[in-house]
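Below is our example:

___
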Amino acid sequence: MNTIPELTCYINNYSLNDCPTPKGNQVYDRVLLQLFGFLGHGKSSFINTCKYVLEDGDYQNYTDSKKSEGGDTKTRVTYPLTNTLTLVDNRGCSVMNDYETAEVFAQLANLLPLDQGVEWSRGFGLAERIVEAEKFVKSSDFIFPIFVYSVTKNISDEEIPEIKMLLETARDLTEIFPVVVLTHKTCGNLREMKDTFENIGAERVFALDNFTPEDHIKTRGRHEEVLKFFCEIIKDIEFRLDRMGDPEKKRQERKKKLLKFIHEREIKKGEEELELQKMKEQRMKREMEEMQRKIQEQNKGCNVS
């Protein structure tokens, strides 16, 4: 199975019902390939690229990628690739803070409805939305996380621990270490970027150049990159599927982990606010003491006169 037609046929016809593992499909009936990451790193163009290659027809801009490349995606949108594989374009985060990352984790854990807008919630608003979404979320969806990052973006030393935390938390929630897809591979230092992600624990790092409305000439190399990517993803799905338990139980476990994360976040936020208030009060006390000292010195000067 080495030719492009053979690879395309294999991926398009792949079914969890045919999974060769001893436990079969574990009652999972669909794979959600969960794309996540930062704004403007090429998630939308990656979706267009995958559909273009697997459908092998005319290029279509399903995601309006020219606009969304700037980070406009604010809805958790599904893009079916086959009867089994569905890409999910999750809303990306602009900064690494506990509020936006919690929202990303809730999407990754498949605890929020698909094809609906995503609004960042403060306080316990996210927890309330997770509870409300219970009846809309399918436990039979097998979750596979894919982290998308552009080679054109430089990763600073300060950002590396944050990205590592993001990937490791995604792993803890989904029980799969996210596959990393590096986009715009010819527009930066690809080797250095690969090394960076491998050094923080990424087991699989794929690099490709997305097809775009301006550049969608079909070439064997670009098609094979995408097809071989999906073949490797299927291998990982089958490996993990044999080690998964009851889908509903797994979903409840993910929910507990997320609610714990939200609870700890609010405790941390409260402690930080108390510490800031304490520092503010101490600063005001020092300023008041300094003011009183100056007044006393002025009064002494007046008495001497």
